[in-house]
Specification:
Elements (H helix, E strand, L loop, with lengths): L1 H28 L4 H8 L2 H40 L7 H16 L2 H14 L9 H27 L2 H9 L4 H31 L11 H12 L3 H36 L1
Length: about 270
């Protein structure tokens, strides 16, 4: 009975989705200006010619994303632990971590990219790198470390205090309790939101094009300027969709799995 209802619900959802999609396609396709829009944004010839160059430039986005992620994970955890410090003597560390998070979460990312990417190299300090890729990496790491630290902190605070008290009762120090008891449990809970942040990170690698890094969006802009056609930008959007949609579905699946596990544990 339940299986029949599920199949019926799936059929209704599929049919309603197809009807809505057909209506939207008909509305757009019947627009008087659609031929001009199609020629400017969805030109097959420009798509086929721009795809190789845009896809090749996307490797820069992937490289930037991987390097940033490898740095963000440990830095974000350290910031989260710093914000969890309760020792009065270490209060300056907690205050600094709080200011760091508030600042990099509060200021628009593009402003931080401008200030660090153009401002710091302009100081002409000895030993300070001036390569756009380096500062693109630094800005993304700083911004997303602030966001990821809050995900970590939420996971740590979601662990019941009795877990830490039990570990302390067994003779562990607070640092040991965090390392062996609290953090491992928190990590399992924060995987879905962490992946969510990294989907945003993958998309925000396009922002660093303003520093002159020729990644996929910058390459699309160059091709657009050369051809006076917006199709290369749509090619870039398609590549990002191909990457981010599977990651989004993975996040949904992990979140559902975690939710089912918690519901099962409460029975």
């Amino acid at each position: 009975m339940a299986t029949g209802s599920a199949r019926k619900g799936l059929l209704v959802a599929t049919l309603s989705t197809l009807v809505v999609a057909a209506f939207v396609a008909y509305t757009i396709g019947s627009s008087p200006a659609w031929p001009e829009v199609q020629k400017a944004f969805f030109n097959g010839r420009y798509f086929s010619t721009s795809l190789p160059a845009v896809a090749e430039a996307f490797t820069i986005n992937v490289r930037l994303f991987i390097l940033a992620e490898l740095l963000i994970l440990p830095i974000g955890l350290l910031i989260a632990l710093a914000r969890s410090i309760t020792t009065p003597a270490l209060a300056p560390i907690r205050i600094f971590a709080t200011i760091f998070v508030d600042f990099f979460r509060g200021v628009p990312s593009i402003l931080i990219i401008y200030v660090l990417g153009f401002g710091v190299p302009a100081l002409q300090l000895d030993g300070v790198p001036k390569e756009p890729f380096f500062w693109a990496l630094v800005t993304l790491v700083l911004i997303y470390s602030a966001y990821v630290s809050e995900v970590y902190r939420a996971g740590i605070e979601s662990i019941h205090p009795s877990q830490e008290r039990a570990a302390r009762a067994l003779g562990l120090t607070r640092v040991q309790a965090l390392r062996y008891v609290v953090v491992p449990q928190a990590m399992r809970r924060v995987i879905p939101p962490l992946l969510n942040d990294f989907i945003g990170l993958q998309k925000d690698t396009a922002l660093v094009s303003i520093l002159g890094v020729v990644e996929t969006f910058k390459q699309a802009q160059i091709l657009k300027a050369a051809s006076f056609n917006f199709t290369p930008l749509m090619t870039t959007a398609l590549i990002f969709l191909i990457i981010t949609i599977p990651m989004t579905r993975l996040v949904d699946r992990l979140a559902a799995k975690d939710r089912n596990a918690q519901l099962g544990g409460t029975r």
